[in-house]
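Question:
When you can, review this sequence-structure pair and walk me through the tokens.
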Amino acid sequence: MLDDYKDLDFYNYVKNLKRYSHAYIIEVDDITTSFPIVKALVKTMICPNHYTNYEKCLNCNTCHLIDENYYEDLKIIEPDGAFIKKEQIQNLQNALSLKSSNNTNQVYILKEADKMNASATNSLLKFLEEPATGIYAILLTTNKNSLLETIISRCQTLTLKTKTKIDYASEDIKNVLNFLTLIHTKKEDSLAYLKSSFLNIYKDKDEILKALTIMENIINQEINSSYQIKRKILPFYDIIGTSLKDISLTDLIFYLDKVVVFKNKLANNPYLNINLFLDRLVIEMSRVVLK
């Protein structure tokens, strides 16, 4: 039911649609748990009763078939093993070349679209470049940045990602705050700290991505919040040493830019050397001290 999602910006977007884009990238936290609201969008595209909520479609066979994944004009593609393959995209294109048997729009969903292999991506790109009337694409991914820019540029991007509430009492937050204050105030010790402490805590790619995400959220909050608010939500504010209130807005923006850039590099390159990656991160973030 679309009205189940009133607290999301996505809901307002769907409710106020005047016309559809031929292709959407929808970035989600989790493919499975987000799929019901994605189907709600699909229903607005296909339902003969102009679906807006479940009450209007209580006896609608179309919406029932969509819920059960049996509707003929809704195609759902998932990875075949580790990847979505070229043959799957070609079979999809062949199926969509046939006229709708229900005289409705046709929609295809690529679940985990970031798992397309290179040949599948090229096949889809050609498909997106020449959109057919009445055919709509939905690419689901947990990380839109893992898709090719040529794909992203041909789609409208929506987000179903929740705004994560940070637990400011956690050890992860303290570790990240200590790292930020150290790198700002003691540049000469930053690399030694990284080797002796940071890498001992965050040992693999996923853990480092988590730390960088926390760092990004903290810096964003520092930029957007007043000092009084920060004191209210950081119960250990006086425990962490030099507080972030001593970092200027200009420097915070500089740090944010570096963190986002390096986080995306790490997320999109499975072969990065973690030690060298973090060395480079510290060096780049330390440049602000030299200004």
